Amino acid sequence: xxxxxxxxxxxxxxxxxxxxxxxxxxxxxxxxxxxxxxxxxxxxxxxxxxxxxxxxxxxxxxxxxxxxxxxxxxxxxxxxxxxxxxxxxxxxxxxxxxxxxxxxxxxxxxxxxxxxxxxxxxxxxxxxxxxxxxxxxxxxxxxxxxxxxxxxxxxxxxxxxxxxxxxxxxxxxxxxxxxxxxxxxxxxxxxxxxxxxxxxxxxxxxxxxxxxxxxxxxxxxx
Length: 222
Fold this sequence. Notes:
This protein is of the alpha/beta class and about 220 residues long. Helix content is about 35%, strand content about 15%. It has a seven-stranded mixed β-sheet with strand order 1-7-6-2-5-3-4, with helices on both faces. Helix 1 crosses helix 2 (about 55-60). The radius of gyration is 17 Å and the shape is globular.
């Protein structure tokens, strides 16, 4: 890939990231902590608890570096939004039941992105939380790290449970928005070396970071 073609690819992503950041700043009262833990260069994986359909936008819009993120293929294929997802380099993944070979193709795309020094964001729970709490991590992170041993940056997200894009009170996107300018916190933790980033350890770190983020949303009463 030439330097010119790389610039053509990266520039729209930066523009979109800036636009997303401004929009989320309007919609939410955002607090970001630990951004210094994201490596300034080189490949990395960001992992986070999955609360709502806007998690990737909130995290990616304010990230110091552009993030590629895995997302459900039915959402990726949305006729109105697919152009945006392709522009920002989202990586679609479907269940093997619906699309045999989808997981392998997604893992190949992740490997290519990491080999090019990009940052990929993964929600290891594999689905939106049904109760606001961190669910058990699936094997996806282990599989990615077996192919690409890179640093893992854990993150905790709080404040989006209860929004119309979360599963509280009914399936996500099935309710009318009721909150505006809600407090939302994204808290990055220190990177985990790939050899130590087992699903169990990574899950524990994300749980701890989410708990810290929850404390900023609802500080303890004196």
